[in-house]
């Protein structure tokens, strides 16, 4: 059965990092894997943009289902961004990590090649500390929302990207068999 899979989580959780590993674990003739942001992210990306982009990927997933393929989308999508539809089977998977792990990953991401972390740099218009703290805060809220849907949660705190991808691929292959 062809399905649409959304792998969500905050910045720094590992969504983009696991994509190449997922590609090696999921048969290419049965799955297409996409980065939620691959069509570009506008400077003022907001909830309306996420809802619109979510709908784009759902439409793409329905198109690919006609070609006998399932679609996997990796990106920051909140539960509230999904349309209310009982006719759509969308499998939602949430990637989680301990707050300190998220902080370390984002600090590393925004440290320059010389090892300097500029506390005054801005990301999406926010000072980096505010950006990192916001991701840690929203991660807890998102986890609760996904758990309320009984969505699988993969804790990436102590997993390598390869191990995370294997956990996600196992969830997808199990769900796809149903």
CATH class: Alpha Beta
Estimated structural class: alpha/beta
Taking all Cα atoms into account, the compactness measure Rg is 16 Å
Proportion of residues in extended strands: 15-25%
CATH architecture: 3-Layer(aba) Sandwich
> What global shape is seen?
globular
How many extended strands?
7
Q: CA-to-CA gap between the ends?
A: 7 Å
Number of helices: 5
Helix content estimate: 40-55%
- The third-level CATH topology is Rossmann fold
Order of helices and strands: EHEHEEHEEHEH
Strand order of the largest sheet: 2-3-1-4-7
By oligomeric state, this entry counts as: single chain
CATH homologous superfamily name? P-loop containing nucleotide triphosphate hydrolases
Q: How much is the average pLDDT?
A: 92
The major sheet is characterized as: 5 strands, parallel
Number of domains: 1
Low-confidence sequence ranges: none
């Amino acid at each position: 059965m062809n399905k649409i899979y959304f792998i969500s989580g905050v910045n720094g959780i590992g969504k983009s990092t696991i994509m190449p590993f997922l590609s090696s674990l999921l048969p290419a003739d049965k799955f297409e894997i996409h980065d939620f942001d691959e069509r570009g992210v506008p400077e003022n990306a907001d909830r309306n943009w996420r809802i619109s982009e979510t709908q784009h990927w759902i439409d793409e997933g329905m198109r690919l289902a006609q070609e006998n393929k399932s679609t996997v989308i990796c990106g920051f999508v909140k539960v509230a961004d999904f349309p209310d539809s009982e006719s759509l089977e969308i499998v939602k998977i949430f990637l989680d990590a301990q707050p300190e792990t998220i902080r370390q990953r984002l600090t590393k991401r925004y440290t320059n090649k010389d090892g300097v972390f500029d506390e005054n740099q801005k990301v999406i218009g926010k000072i980096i500390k505010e950006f990192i703290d916001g991701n840690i805060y929203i991660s807890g809220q998102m986890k609760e929302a996904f758990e309320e849907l009984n969505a699988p949660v993969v804790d990436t705190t102590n997993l390598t990207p390869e191990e995370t991808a294997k956990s996600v691929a196992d969830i997808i292959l199990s769900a796809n068999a149903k």
